[in-house]
Amino acid sequence: MDYVFLIIGSLVIITCFYFIISPFFSAGEVPAAGLETESEKLTLEQIYNAVNELEMDFLMKKITREDFEKLKENYQLLGAEILKEEAQGQKAKHLPGSKKKIKDAEAEAEILRELKKLRQQKG
Predict the structure, then answer these.
(1) What letter does residue 39 receive in the DSSP assignment?
(2) Which residues, including other chains, have CB under 8 Å from residue 107's CB and lie 6 or more apart?
(3) How far apart are alpha carbons 108 and 47 in whole angstroms?
């Protein structure tokens, strides 16, 4: 009778072990890296909201200063990229080739000036 309990106990333990370990070895669906739909793209409003929540978390001492500054800078860079893409999209519609390059450079300089202002306000 003891052998029956040993066999049943061993089967239960092996079954539990299998269910715990199997997710680590199964190949799940990996989303394609370059395929973003329109709904998956971040908007400026979402980035501003994320920065506001991040500031609230920092003020409530949920995250450290280093993490806060690193994440805030990442969000600012994302916002700058979105602004740059929007500016390029709008200018491409209105400007011919050579003027477009000049306007792109001006937009990039403006974005950098805005980032510098934000960094000075932070410091």
Answers:
(1) G
(2) 83, 84, 87, 88, 91
(3) 19
Radius of gyration (Cα) for the chain, nearest Å?
A: 26
Distance CA(41)–CA(78), nearest Å, equals: 11
Phi, psi of 70 (to 5 degrees): -65, -45
The mean per-residue pLDDT over the stretch 2-21 comes to 93
| 16: Cα within 13 Å, side-chain hemisphere | 6
Residue scoring higher pLDDT (21 or 86) = 21
Backbone angles phi, psi at 77, to 5 degrees: -65, -40
d(CA 85, CA 63): 31
pLDDT in tens, 30-57: 555 555 555 567 788 898 899 999 999 9
Reported pTM: 0.45
